[in-house]
């Protein structure tokens, strides 16, 4: 291992020519070379017309020397100083000619500009408008393919529908079971602590039954499905976009809206109410577990009380909500998937925004429907 | 003797305000192997998208025979495009379906054949591209070259009059690329189809191209058209010559005529 010689550059002037002697090891990690001295000499107003190099004592060199030389050459070109590179070692000359072989394409370099805050707000607003437009277009196209379906003209493979139903139905049962059982448990516990103060533990059944059927069953199932299936839809369709599979379908005369989106939406519309019902029952089971084991209420009493408190209408409200959530989840998942760009990160973005959009839609729709039910007195 | 099969008239392609190519005017004749060539980023694949109805031109039109593609109603456009087949750069097979299902897709969509007949056609098409016996494989289970051949089988499923091929040799080793070229060539001869191919593979360009258009990314328009071999012999445009000789031949003497 040889010791490295510090890099240096010495300039000497002869009439209009500046001679730069480059010496030592110009390797990355070395002390930064005193290039500024050369630049200062070149730019000090004295009429230097030419820059030549001598490299007799140049040791090892790498990108450090190259970047510094490029700086010199660029500076020379800007100031109208002729930079003579012919005395440099062959390797350096070769690399320099490669660097300048393809001229920088005009307009290729991105201009970095500070955007004023007003512009940022404006662009944000425009983006929201565009997003809403895209949403409307997508809803419109979905509606059109829905009409095509009703007229029996929609074309998709029924096997796709069944596959999707399998994917978002039975396969989702374990996670839905777990979450809704837990929500039932929690509802019962939180309620029980308060109700036990009055010795009214039996009303836990009302609380859990009504809470699950009208509200939490559907909501929990929807949020699970949004993360599970909405994201999957966006990722599937996004990947198909990246692989030109959607283009291929179009050239074969298929409508992607019918062929890809419709079976997914139908599957969720069909499955979500069932999942809701299932989540309701699991929640009630969870409530029963807590009440029966800790609060001195027998199972029969609990079930009786539940049957008295919860009416068919309550189940029905939950199921309708579930259906609506299903549409919203499928719409947001498929929309983000179809809008996906053509890169791997775009697929990730699509999946993320599918879940975010889905959950926002779900919460808004749920609030609206709850207020409506309240006003209508159902 | 030569009948125009596809005519591009005065077409400008753009993404929003950003013009990609302008004033494209050329004709593809029946039976041609027509090469769309040019450096990277000049809009070759974009031009293909315009020809196969996926992207609307900013100006101008594409004519299939006498019929305008972009003036037509959606239904008519679908009917025109039914006479074409497209092989995408990556094959673009639907990854959730087997090769057989992929090839069967356009057949079952556009014909009323029974499933037995369809599966016979599918096997025949797969055998044509050398994939006999791979009916039940999924695209992810076969190699890139095989995926492209399967894509070709799907593109030919309905015996198209015009076959569009986007960079068939991209990502293939030279031998597989040559085999694919030969395959496309013999398909044209035997099925009497017209081939429109986007490529910058010189070997393919000279081996099978009978006509071509050269797109230039700097002036953003076409700067040469004609058979690649003749272009090489006759063209005096330095950009074309540099492209066709990989920049190895010094540019022709500009004053020589």
What would your notes on this structure say?
The complex is a heterodimer of chains A (378) and B (257). Helices cover 69% and strands 7% of the residues of chain A. Chain A is α/β, with parallel strands linked by helices. Chain A has 2 domains: 8-99, Transcription Regulator spoIIAA, CATH 3.30.750.24; 140-376, no CATH class. In chain A, strands 1, 2, 3, 4 and 5 form a 5-stranded mixed β-sheet that branches. In chain A, helix 6 (173-197) packs antiparallel against helix 7 and helix 11 packs antiparallel against helix 12. Chain A is elongated. Chain A starts with 7 loop residues before the first strand and ends with a helix. The mean pLDDT of chain A is 88. Helix content of chain B is 36%, strand content 25%. The chains are: A alpha/beta (378), B alpha/beta (257). The A-B interface holds A 155, 163, 239-240, 243-245, 247-254 and B 49, 52-54, 78, 81-82, 84, 86, 88-90, 92-96, 105-106, 109-110, 154.
Structural topology:
The complex is a heterodimer of chains A (378) and B (257).
Chain A: E1 8-14, E2 17-26, H1 35-43, E3 50-54, E4 58-61, H2 63-79, E5 82-83, H3 90-99, H4 117-150, H5 158-168, H6 173-197, H7 204-242, H8 245-251, H9 256-294, H10 299-309, H11 312-338, H12 344-376
Parallel strand pairs in A: 2-3, 2-4, 3-5
Antiparallel strand pairs in A: 1-2
Helix pairs in contact in A: 1-2, 4-9, 5-9, 6-7, 6-9, 7-9, 7-10, 7-11, 7-12, 9-10, 9-11, 11-12
Chain B: E1 4-15, E2 18-29, E3 33-38, H1 44-51, E4 59-64, E5 67-68, H2 74-81, E6 84-87, H3 99-110, H4 115-128, H5 144-155, E7 162-166, H6 174-191, E8 194-198, H7 202-208, E9 211-216, E10 221-225, H8 228-234, H9 238-244
């Amino acid at each position: 291992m040889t010791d490295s010689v510090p890099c240096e550059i010495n300039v000497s002037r002869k009439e209009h020519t500046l001679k730069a002697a480059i010496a030592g090891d110009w390797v990355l990690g070395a002390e930064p070379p005193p290039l500024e001295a050369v630049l200062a000499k070149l730019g000090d107003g004295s009429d230097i017309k030419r820059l030549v190099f001598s490299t007799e004592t140049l040791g090892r060199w790498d990108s450090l020397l190259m970047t510094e030389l490029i700086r010199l050459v660029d500076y020379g070109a800007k100031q109208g100083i002729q930079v003579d590179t012919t005395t440099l070692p062959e390797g350096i000359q070769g690399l320099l000619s490669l660097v300048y072989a393809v001229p920088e394409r005009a307009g290729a370099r991105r201009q970095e500009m500070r955007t004023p805050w007003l512009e940022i707000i404006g662009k944000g607003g425009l983006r929201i408008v565009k997003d809403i437009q895209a949403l409307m277009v997508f809803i419109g196209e979905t509606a059109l393919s829905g009409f095509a379906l009703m007229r029996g003209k929609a074309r998709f493979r029924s096997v796709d529908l069944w596959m999707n139903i399998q994917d978002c139905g039975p396969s989702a049962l374990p996670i839905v079971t777990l979450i809704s059982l837990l929500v039932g448990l929690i509802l019962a516990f939180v309620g029980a602590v308060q109700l036990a103060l009055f010795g009214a533990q039996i009303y836990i059944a009302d609380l859990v039954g009504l809470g699950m059927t009208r509200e939490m069953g559907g909501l929990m199932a929807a949020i699970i499905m949004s993360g599970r299936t909405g994201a999957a839809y966006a990722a599937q369709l996004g990947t198909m976009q990246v692989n030109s599979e959607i283009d291929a379908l179009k050239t074969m005369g298929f409508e992607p809206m019918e062929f890809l989106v419709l079976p997914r939406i139908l599957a969720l519309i069909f499955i979500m109410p069932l999942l809701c019902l299932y989540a309701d029952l699991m929640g009630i089971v969870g409530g029963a577990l807590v009440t029966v084991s800790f609060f001195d209420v027998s199972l029969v009493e609990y079930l009786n009380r539940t049957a008295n408190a919860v009416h068919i209408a309550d189940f029905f409200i939950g199921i309708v909500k579930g259906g609506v959530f299903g549409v919203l989840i499928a719409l947001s998942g498929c929309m983000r998937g179809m809008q996906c760009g053509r890169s791997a990160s775009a697929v990730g973005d699509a999946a993320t925004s599918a879940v975010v959009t889905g959950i926002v839609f779900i919460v808004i729709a749920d609030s609206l429907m709850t207020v409506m039910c309240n006003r209508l007195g159902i | 003797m030569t009948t125009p099969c596809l005519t591009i008239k005065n077409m400008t392609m753009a993404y929003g305000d950003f013009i990609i190519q302008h004033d494209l005017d050329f004709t593809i004749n029946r039976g041609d192997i027509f090469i769309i060539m040019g450096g990277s980023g000049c809009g070759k694949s974009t031009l293909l998208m315009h020809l196969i109805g996926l992207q609307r031109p900013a100006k101008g039109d594409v004519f299939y025979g006498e019929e305008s593609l972009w003036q037509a109603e959606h239904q008519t456009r679908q009917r025109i495009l039914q006479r074409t087949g497209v092989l995408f750069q990556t094959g673009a097979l639907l990854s959730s379906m087997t090769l057989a299902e992929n090839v069967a897709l356009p057949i079952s969509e556009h014909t009323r054949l029974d499933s037995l007949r369809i599966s016979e056609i599918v096997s025949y098409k797969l055998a044509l591209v050398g994939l006999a016996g791979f009916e039940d494989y999924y695209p992810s289970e076969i190699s890139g070259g095989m995926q492209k051949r399967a894509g070709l089988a799907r593109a030919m499923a309905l015996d198209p009059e015009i076959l569009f091929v986007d960079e068939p040799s991209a990502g293939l080793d030279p031998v597989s690329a040559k085999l694919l070229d030969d395959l496309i060539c013999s398909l044209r001869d035997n099925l009497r189809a017209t081939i429109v191919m986007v490529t910058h593979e010189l070997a393919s360009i000279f081996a099978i191209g009978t006509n071509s258009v050269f797109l230039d990314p700097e002036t953003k328009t076409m700067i040469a058209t004609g058979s690649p071999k003749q272009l090489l012999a006759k063209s005096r445009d330095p950009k074309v010559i540099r492209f066709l000789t990989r920049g190895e031949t010094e540019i022709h003497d500009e004053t020589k005529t």
